[in-house]
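Milestone M4 deliverable, item 7.
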Amino acid sequence: MSKLLNSFWRAVMYCLHPRVIALSVLPLIIMAVVSLGLGYFYWEAAISAVRTQLESFAMLDATVRWLEGLGLSNLRLVLAPVILLFLAIPVIVIVSLLFVAVFMTPTMVALVAGRRFPGLERKKGGSLLASVFWSLGSTVLAAIALVLSIPLWLVPPLILILPPLIWGWLTYRVMSYDALSDHASSEERRQIFKEHRGSLLAIGIISGYLGAAPSIIWASGAMFVALAPVLVPVAIWVYTLVFAFSSLWFAHYTLEALEQLRKTNAVVAHINIAQAAPQSIADRVDRKPDSPPDATPGLLLPGAQP
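Output delivered:
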């Protein structure tokens, strides 16, 4: 628990570093430009497609008409944009995570390593290609889990539990690998994942709940759909900062665990060598052939024939 809290507060302080703040702007600019561009060219077409789909469901259409009869006259106009905004949340979260992993995590891991662990050897147990495949595979699994869990969101408590758990698992998978890919060997990374799986998953889940903070913005977006062009960049920036903090938290925790693992392995290796030395000497003594006590090798006794 102390390691979790120590790495947590260190990550909070590192978020105030000018380099981290500057790095958080790049994913924000890229994603804001892409999202606003897509919204400008495809918003109306997407709204029409969603409304068409809603009208194709007779029960849902009857429910909307009944609610409009109760006084919610603008429900049909607002419902499609709200559904479209909520469908965009998983895409924005996943893309934000991947952008942070690609553009920010390597620099922030190097920052943490240079300031806290300057003597930590880099064994290059991972590569950029392996990181991309690892992140994409984890993202696909998280997306499948997210889609399969959507019907359970209708149960009020589960909507507050399942999405953060899925985001937390995805964050744990992506951030842990990237934090160790440069410094740890493959064996060290697997050992840390095995020994610290619970703590790493806890960091991911807490980060997942922190990532739910932009839901307040999206709730405002549900009431004020007209503010979506402003709310979308704000939400992207919040997601970026949350994942940047998560990356720093994983970097502090995993690099400290790696340093401790190497110290432990070095002590164990010295103990094994010390324990093996007497046995090795005894084995060599047992294998040495017996020789006459008064005979000196290479020297002939008087009267002896060569």
